[in-house]
Write a structure and sequence with these properties.
With 663 residues, the chain is an alpha+beta fold. It has 3 domains: 4-208; 243-473, Palm domain of DNA polymerase (Alpha-Beta Complex), CATH 3.90.1600; 516-663, no CATH class. It has 19 helices and 27 strands. The two termini are 53 Å apart. The model is unreliable at 655-663 (pLDDT under 50).
Length: 663
């Protein structure tokens, strides 16, 4: 079967379409212009796609490229007498309309069910259209270390006059397609999953994000259970005029300490406007010399920054609630107000119980996990049929309060216990080893009271900056040699050792700005050398300067920058008498170097300027990767990175402390 990675470029008088086979290097280029007109060949190719059921794979194609494809197929017969440039002008005008509709979040002319050529939109599938994850193809190119981060070199409004210009556009298109193909390869397991789900449920989920999969499958099952058409399920909502938190707090929630008694009373006095929940409640508790912050979304607290370790006398216990939010709903029989409670809870619990039966490597385990975890967030999404903000508050408020009950029970019962972290679904506390059994007994009491379950682990070491940024080294676990090798290959940041015939590994958590392993592509991977050096310092006892001398991967030193709206980026050459300024792309990759330019963000409206790297630091642009066999050729200014690493270490470690390797 032939399927095609594809991309269009629409200009004022020129259209370029490039297609590359999803498995091979076969490539087809179509140009519609007076200098070269492949329009009829292009139409024949699209008809072949229709007849042979060949799919188009794109980045943001559902909102743009596929709209143009089907517009052309619907109208090409009317353009028979037109020149290449005249046809391109019509396509260009329609492309502008598509962009306007997308910007306004209006419905497009061609929804998926109307399309005669199947589509896989990588952008939609990864949910990179979500504001929290929004990522252009160029940003993903940066994130996956693409060799050429290239933006369109010719403005779309330009009248194309030469074949040289057309060839430049084609080269740009090929670069986009090649990077999209690489993302497609990285996404193969997710595409296979969506294919299986689409076939099983007869729903087109090929471009579906995880929240959409959750909505579609839950709607499918609820429609079956309630004997209500799926389209009616999707229109259901529960709107509230107000929410009194006193009415949603579980009856068994109570505290002994004055600090948490006050917290409970604060919550009970709150009456919320469901249309304006964000930021409408916040409160902090100082308990056992640790500040814990509360809001409507979750709880966060941490002890002062430092390196906390287990030893012969003390152990760092970590306890997380198993599937906390889903189980709060299941065990307390909560549901959105518009669904019959028993039927909703039975279905929700069915997903949970089915997932437990399925091995973690089975894709359906992941599907059920998506459904269970997405439902909470969708209960506060007015575009979702789960919408009932009271359910959201039941989950988040009781989640915080019940977890704080566990926190207080432990701290009030175990002498010399030191709280380290409290977050949305778990706690970390350092306790005397002699009290470990009592700790577990308290946890069991809490489980019986709440009808929830806890999962326990122990840390050898916790490197704590704050509740969102830390490195946690768990205890060693023994496995067979094959498992050990497989884990080592998948998780190279874990700690490994061999003791005689015993093969041991210690899982290592990297959170927040200390995370560098297998980052999601929408996240900012800039300056990975910094978290890597911090990890090696605290976990393996390697001094930062030594680590930098060992890590000669230039991409770990690179930084990504982006400009939006009224801002542009320019480079200024400060090494010559006559200042040279060059306007740059919206997204750039660079590293700090001993020579080079200053990259400045400039506001196009009022002229304000922001240096990307303030002070003496210079940058070398690295959009088009040119790898050098000799490290010195890059002229990396390692002092910049060392300064940043040492600042992070000094925030955590006492200045005179020097970590030694535990192994």
């Amino acid at each position: 079967m032939n399927h095609w990675i594809m991309d269009y470029e629409t200009l004022a008088n020129c259209f370029v379409g490039v297609f590359e086979h999803y498995k091979t290097s076969e490539r087809k280029v179509f140009i519609v212009h007076d200098l070269k007109n492949d329009f009829h060949k292009f139409i024949d190719f699209l008809k072949e796609n229709q007849e042979n059921r060949e799919w188009h794979i794109s980045y943001n194609g559902l909102a743009f490229d596929s709209q143009i494809t089907h517009y052309i197929l619907d109208n090409y017969l009317m353009w028979e007498a037109l020149s290449g440039c005249q046809i391109s002008e019509i396509i260009y005008q329609y492309a502008a309309k598509c962009i306007q509709q997308s910007d306004k979040k209006a419905f497009q002319d061609y929804p998926q069910w109307k399309m005669s050529i199947g589509q896989i939109d990588i952008f939609k599938m990864h949910h990179w259209d979500n504001p929290a994850k929004r990522s252009s193809l160029k940003w993903i190119q940066y994130s996956m270390d693409w060799d050429n981060i290239l933006e369109m070199p010719i403005h779309h409004g330009t009248k194309i006059e030469t074949m040289e210009q057309i060839n430049t556009i084609v080269e740009y298109c090929i670069n986009d397609i090649s990077s999209t193909k690489e993302i497609f390869k990285k996404s193969e397991s997710q595409i296979r999953l969506r294919k299986a789900l689409s076939e099983t449920y007869n729903i087109n989920l090929f471009s579906a994000s995880e929240p959409r999969i959750s909505k579609e499958l839950f709607a499918y099952y609820m429609s079956e259970k309630l004997n209500i058409p799926k389209k009616d399920i999707k229109n259901m909502r529960t709107y509230r005029t107000s929410i009194k938190l006193a009415d949603v707090i579980l009856p068994f929630v109570e505290f002994k300490s004055p600090e948490f008694k006050d917290l409970l009373e604060k919550f009970k006095k709150v009456e919320l406007d469901p249309t304006n929940l964000k930021g409408s409640f916040s409160y902090s508790v100082m308990y056992k010399n640790v500040k814990t912050d509360f809001g409507l979304g979750g709880v966060h607290g941490a002890n002062k920054a430092g390196v906390y370790t287990s030893n012969d006398d003390y152990v760092i216990m970590s306890s997380d609630v198993t599937s906390f939010y889903p189980n709060l709903v299941i065990r307390n029989k909560w549901s959105p107000g518009h669904f019959p409670k028993q039927e909703f809870c039975d279905q929700y619990e069915w997903f949970f119980e089915e997932r437990k039966k399925i091995p973690k490597k089975d894709p359906m385990n992941y599907v059920y996990k998506i459904i269970l975890n997405s439902t909470f967030g969708l209960s506060n999404d007015e575009n979702s049929f789960f919408y009932d903000p009271e359910l959201t508050m039941r989950i988040t408020v009781n989640g915080q309060l019940t977890l704080m009950m566990l926190y207080e029970m432990i701290m009030e019962s175990i002498p010399d216990a030191t709280p380290l972290m409290q977050n949305t679904d778990g706690i970390e506390i350092r306790i005397p080893r002699a009290y470990k059994d009592q700790y577990l007994e308290i946890c069991a009491q809490w489980e019986k009271l709440t009808n929830l379950q806890l999962e326990h682990d122990e840390y050898q070491k916790l490197v704590l900056a704050d509740v969102n940024n830390y490195i946690g080294l768990n205890n060693f676990k023994q496995v067979d040699i094959t498992t050990w090798r497989n884990i080592k290959k998948e998780f190279p940041h874990y700690v490994y050792k061999v003791d005689g015939d015993k093969f041991l590994y210690a899982p290592t958590k990297l959170k927040g700005r200390f995370d560098f392993h297998d980052l999601a592509l929408h996240k900012n991977k800039s300056k990975l050398i910094i978290p890597k050096a911090i990890y090696h310092y605290f976990i393996h006892g390697v001094e930062p300067a030594q680590y930098l001398s060992q890590n000669r991967n230039i991409l770990d030193y690179c930084i990504g920058s982006k400009s939006k709206g009224d801002w542009k980026q320019v480079s200024r050459n400060v090494a010559i008498n006559n200042l040279k300024e060059e306007e740059l792309q919206k997204i750039n990759r660079y590293f700090i170097s001993k020579g080079g330019v200053k990259i400045i963000k400039v506001n196009k409206t009022d002229g304000r300027e922001i240096q990307l790297e303030a002070g003496r630091w210079l940058q070398t642009l690295f959009n088009k990767m040119q790898l050098s066999p000799k490290w010195d050729a890059y002229r990396v200014d390692e002092s910049y990175y060392l300064d940043a690493i040492k600042r992070e270490i000094e925030k955590i470690d006492e200045p005179k402390t020097r970590q030694l390797s535990l192994f």
